Amino acid sequence: MRILVTGGAGFIGSHLIDRLMEAGHDVICLDNFYTGHKRNILKWIGHPNFDLIRHDITETIRLEADQIYHLACPASPVHYQSNPVKTIKTNVMGTLNMLGLAKRVKARLFMASTSEVYGDPEVHPQTEDYRGSVNPIGIRSCYDEGKRVAETLCFDYHRQNGVDIRVARIFNTYGPRMLENDGRVVSNFIVQALRGQPLTVYGDGSQTRSFCYVSDLVEGFIRLMNGDHIGPVNLGNPGEYTIKQLAETVQAMVNPEIPLDYKPLPQDDPRRRQPDITLARTWLGWEPTIPLQEGLERTIADFRDRLT
Ligand code: NAD
Ligand code: UDP
Asked: 282: which DSSP letter?
């Protein structure tokens, strides 16, 4: 199959491309390199089945593909908040362009949505039928409302134009190739610990997140894309940890001497987050297999290589 991956030079996109290339597909990676890097896909450059296109998805493009994995969008709060209008354009105009492309070439489109569509949830754990508690005018809105519109666009193109869609709601994911200046909690803690700096815990660290290792997530993507259910489907690891527990885990694994440094909690930071993955289990036969400790070991090893 010819498979287009938007955002393919990013963290998750590049791991997905590895899987697709190893399976023998023709892969087109489309990226504007805002948060993605050529080094993530370097090993495929020059391979006859691989094409790299530097392109911003807010502009239209004509391509041929059988499947489109649509991942292009900065995912870390630091990056998506640094140019919020651009984030909305990427989510709305970019998704519109990709759905238009899918409609023209009759490709199946996989939308990388997010647990952020649930906002600061009143339902715990979050099930797909929960409609969310999102602030439409806050500093996270460019991302979470942007993704909500992107989901709406998917379903409207599906109903109105018969576009074949798959929608995944991705929960916090971590692993090798996260950017060291990414600002997300796992990369921050690991980079700080390796550099001998205090670990910056925002708020009192009692807020929770559920962390999925990237190879587990990619397996879920491929099953959803090639299965019969359009979603939305939660993809994430149901293991729930407080941010303080995560800090203590990284501390114990890298350097127990390093202190925790408590900082103010950012605006609209969700209090709790944990996926209910019943649908993914029943529809896709999918669940995560890599425990946090093991995933952290692999991620720490990757950062250690890059930082030294
Ligand atoms: P990332 O920032 O590493 O990757 C995003 C990629 O999209 C980058 O390569 C970037 O250069 C590219 N991009 C951004 N704007 C673009 C544009 N206008 N045109 C073309 N390319 C553009 O992030 P990631 O963690 O790999 O996330 C991938 C997708 O998964 C995103 O859509 C994100 O919203 C979603 N997601 C990720 C997580 C997570 O925990 N990592 C959680 C929920 C959802
Ligand atoms: N966080 C933290 N220290 C950091 C970075 C993040 O305590 O150095 C917290 C952040 O406030 C949030 C959680 O960790 O409660 C997850 O943050 P991240 O940016 O990784 O993802 P998101 O908030 O989008 O889930």
From this structure: I
Please tell me the pTM assigned to this model.
0.97
Catalytic residue positions, numbered:
143
The single residue listed with the structure tokens 């890298």 is 254
The CATH H-level (homologous superfamily) assignment of domain 2-177+212-237+271-289 is: NAD(P)-binding Rossmann-like Domain (3.40.50.720)
What pLDDT score was predicted for residue 298?
Answer: 98
Residue 308's pLDDT is 76
Q: Estimate the crossing angle of helix 243-254 against helix 292-307, to 10 degrees.
A: 60
Q: Which residue from 53, 56, 71 has its CB within 8 A of the most atoms of ligand 1, so it is best to mutate? A: 71
Q: Which ligand is nearest the CA of 217, by number?
A: 1
The closest ligand to the CA of 121 turns out to be 2
Number of H helices, E strands in the chain: 10, 13
Dist. CA 237–CA 243, nearest whole Å = 15
| Domain boundaries of the chain, sorted by first residue | 2-177+212-237+271-289
In one letter, which amino acid is 182?
D
What is the tens place of the pLDDT at every residue in 76-86? 999 999 999 99
Q: Check if the beta carbon of residue 284 is closer than 8 Å to that of residue 220.
A: yes
Q: Assign 173 to helix, strand or coil.
A: strand
What ipTM goes with this model?
A: 0.98
